[in-house]
UniProtKB/TrEMBL annotation:
Gene3D superfamilies for the chain: TspO/MBR protein (1.20.1260.100)
Name of protein: Membrane protein
Predominant place of localization: membrane
Membrane topology: Multi-pass membrane protein
Domain of life of the organism encoding this protein: Bacteria
Amino acid sequence: MSSTSTATRSDRARQITVAVSAVIAVVGSFIGSGAAGGTPIQNAAGGALGADSTPIAPAGPAFSIWSVIYLGLLAYAVWQLLPARASAPRQRLVGYWVAASLVLNAAWILSVQFDQLALSCVVIVLLLAVLARTFLLLVDGRPTGLVETIVLDGTMGLYLGWVSIATAANLTAGLTVSGFDGFGWGQDAWAVIVLAVAALVGVLIAIRGRGRLTPAASLAWGLAWVAVSRTIGTLVSQPATIAAIVAAAVVVITTIAIRITTRFATRAQGTQR
């Protein structure tokens, strides 16, 4: 898919909006890291999002994936500024959705920094919805080349997969802080349920995305670090550990199986033609 029309003022406005939103998101991440004097995310909101706060919280190293995601987002923000990208149909389709995700990302960080955990739950659900919409739009179109595949499709896939598990952790933390006792079922039971839902989300993404690898990779990454977190620290849980490992395996195996099946089906159709 290539540019088929002349760039307009609206196209330029979209390009600038995406670029500015990327800068806002990166500044927000800098604040959220604590490097600018703010409180690191894991220590903000009374530590509600720390590795030992709930059975769904991943261990600290899991968050290093943000470095890759932000790098990809910045690369996309710069790449989409190129004149040739201004009127590209695919960029017109997803540009503002990507910008919305970047602004929501910054809003999430600020809500946590100001100890507004309930608000952060609302924001991250909106962020997940925006990323899901963006992913669906991308799946229904084809990238123009390798660069677009990496900086747009690849980055947004990683973004979606990671935010999927982050949403589960955030909502669990919000419910815990609010005093929700899980109907007396216990933390282990709820951990298994939530992780099973996370696996189901990964399977649905794999099906709709026809086996795209990056969402599965980041979701499995998050689930793996949930398993690690439940074997160390103060909140050890064997059921949660096993559930997280199984969930990660299900997501990865399902995605690969669907990808292989889709490839064979596509080749078969090509042969028939």
